[in-house]
Amino acid sequence: MTITRRDILLGTAAGVAAGAVMPALRGGAPAFGQTKLNYTPEKGAELRVLRWSAFVKGDEDSWIANTEKFTKETGVKVRIDKESWEDIRPKAAVAANVGSGPDIMFVWFDDPHQYPDKLLDVTDLADYLGKKYGGWYEGPASYAKRDGKFIGLPLATIGNAICYRESWMNEAGFKEFPKDTAGFLELCKALKAKGHPAGFAHGHAVGDGSNFAHWLLWSHGGRLVDENNKVVVNSPETIASLKYAHELYKTYIPGTESWLDVNNNRAFLAGEIGLTANGVSLYYAAKNDPKLQDMAKDIRTTPFPVGPTGVAAELYQITSNIIFKHTKYPNAAKAYLQFMFEEAQMQEWIKQSSAYCCQTLKAFANNPVWTSDPNHVAYAKASDLLRTNGYAGTLGYASAGVMADYVVVDMVAEAATGQRTPEEAAKRAEARANRYYRV
């Protein structure tokens, strides 16, 4: 069921009337500052874009403003719809399979690898943007590439970090945030004893649940598959990570096994938990609420602690823009994405997203947003540091299927809550993963 939906029709009658079309619709390419579109929109083109519901208002407002600029310049009407995070994946799958629906979508992780033959090849556009703007970060690009071709454009990496109340950490007897998993567990125990339990999503939360479960697995040396895409999740390292998850779960507020992406935000902002993992949106939700100013001043962000492997290993949420082959206006769709990724629009969007959306093109790493607030630092290098969910194998049909089926998330949740022993949870995850990674 859709949680939030708003249809926005951009463009006015005057701007799109036949007698007032822009040069692009008459065969020329309009200029945007020093930039010219590489694609001439089809005559009478209209686009429908489906994106996820924003957690940071500036992201959505800036995207809409940039879209309005595109409509003003080209006369191409663009309707923007939005859906809850959990609804994006099934909506995209349906559109791909039935061959109708939105022209462009914002999708998650390696979802494009589930239906690559249904997506428009945008390699020419990706190569143009990469060459112009310092190249794509390898991690985000891998999510949008299939057999050496771009089947989407990696739009942003939504960084994930530990968000906590500094005064409550001090109250629990810690002057600094622990940098390893052993110390992290002790902090969570101490916070629980002081009435400030932790809380991490163990439900089918697209971002928070997936990010946390993969960090927990990787931090102890576990992995779903090896370099040859052989399922190796049922391992001593995985068992160790699940035993740790069970101990950590004892420090939580009740009910996290049903949490989706909004639940930890609500619990934190209500003062029910003292520590969770989230994008920077949590900080801004407090900062922008007049009633939560004291809380906002107390919030700190930090990278996830490092586990027994001694190596930082984190999954961040990737969102990519895809164009379906069923679109009637492929040139207009490419022109739209080119316009949105050009510097004048993209830098402003990143800035207005307030460190929520990390750039996927290296030239935009100089955006001033990353140094404008100390709480942004933990998110600044998300695109550079992320590990893909297909680790240590490759992304493809199998990795996308496992991700969409929440195999790792369910394994961690089952062991953490005691629904299954760590050994049972790992064995079940192995069986489920093998359905996708067929030899």
Question: Would you write up a description of this structure?
Answer:
This protein starts with 7 loop residues before the first strand and ends with a helix. The model is unreliable at 1-34 (pLDDT under 50). A six-stranded mixed beta sheet has the order 1-5-4-6-13-9. A three-stranded antiparallel beta sheet has the order 11-10-12. A two-stranded antiparallel ribbon has the order 2-3. 40% of the residues lie in helices and 13% in strands. By secondary structure, the chain is of the alpha+beta class. The chain has 18 helices and 13 strands. The protein folds into two domains: 8-155 and 318-374, D-Maltodextrin-Binding Protein, domain 2, CATH 3.40.190.10; 161-315 and 405-436, 3-Layer(aba) Sandwich (D-Maltodextrin-Binding Protein, domain 2).
The structural domain count equals 2
Query: Could you tell me the number of beta strands?
Result: 13
Estimated share of beta-strand residues: 5-15%
Q: Characterize the overall form.
A: globular
CATH superfamily of the largest domain: Periplasmic binding protein-like II
CATH structural fold name of the largest domain: D-Maltodextrin-Binding Protein, domain 2
**What summary fits the major beta sheet?**
6 strands, mixed
Low-pLDDT residue intervals, each spanning 5 or more residues: 1-34
Compute the separation of the termini in Å.
Answer: 36 Å
